[in-house]
Amino acid sequence: MSQPQKRFDKQGFPIPGTFTDLPARTDRQEMAGRGWGTMSPGAFVWKKRLLWLLLIGGILGMIAWKFANPIQELYAEARAQMGARAYLEGDFGSARDHLDSALGILPERNEWRLLRAEVHSRLNQLPESLADFTAVMRDHTCLPDGIQGRAYILFRMNKPDEALAEIDKLVEMRAPSWEGALNARAYLCSLCDKNCEQALEDINLAIKLSPQRNAAFLDTRGYVHYRLKNYQLALKDLNAAIQDYEDAEELMRLHPRRRRSHAQQAHVRENLAVMYHHRAEVYQALKNEEKAAADYQKANEYGYDPEQGIL
Predict the structure, then answer these.
(1) What is the C-alpha to C-alpha distance for residues 102 and 79, in angstroms, rounded to an integer?
(2) pTM for this entry
């Protein structure tokens, strides 16, 4: 860039330069190359602020990166809890959506996947339920639930032989308990109407092994007797099972301090629905249409629904 031309007065002294003597600043490339040393005060403040913003942004990015995973995990936990609550309230569509979201973040949480398998079962989405029950079997702590869940879903998919082959694995493992596994196989045999003689042996042994009276076991034996056309024995067991559950429901109703959780109350009602339906079938086989109709009505009131897996 050219320098301003010097001027002198009459005595030969130099005349000070003026603003008009400065060269035109049209050479932008040269000015840009001169950097911070010739920067205007406004531009310097702007670049200083930019550096601060970049520094603060970097720090915030590091903090966000550090805490992103814990925040996501907390969010997943919250969605899973909302899914469990929706399941207990019978809002299975919302339960599925919440659990889908939770498992999208933490797919390794098999207890959530197991619950989602149950939700799919209630929505009659059998292939999806089967897939989730199969997936949880990779975790040995969920293996018994996975096997039993798969067996009952296979039954509902009209694959009784596969279902019974699956439940045999549970008995071989004696899981979650030997009597529990024997009861599960005996009940599945009665549903499939296959191997009922073996089922009777299984459930008798389960009742013998059980440390206390178990109404669910009595219901299983009653339904096995029904399949074997032992109708009076079936009625004896089913009457006892229904009485035990009705007593439990009455206790929860009359004694608020002894009320159980919503899940336990739902469990009692669902079991009563199934037991009343079983007894209705026995009465129908005995040609007692009046009692059969009354029990079918009771079963429906309690929520008997094979499409939701309440059977």
Answers:
(1) 6
(2) 0.74
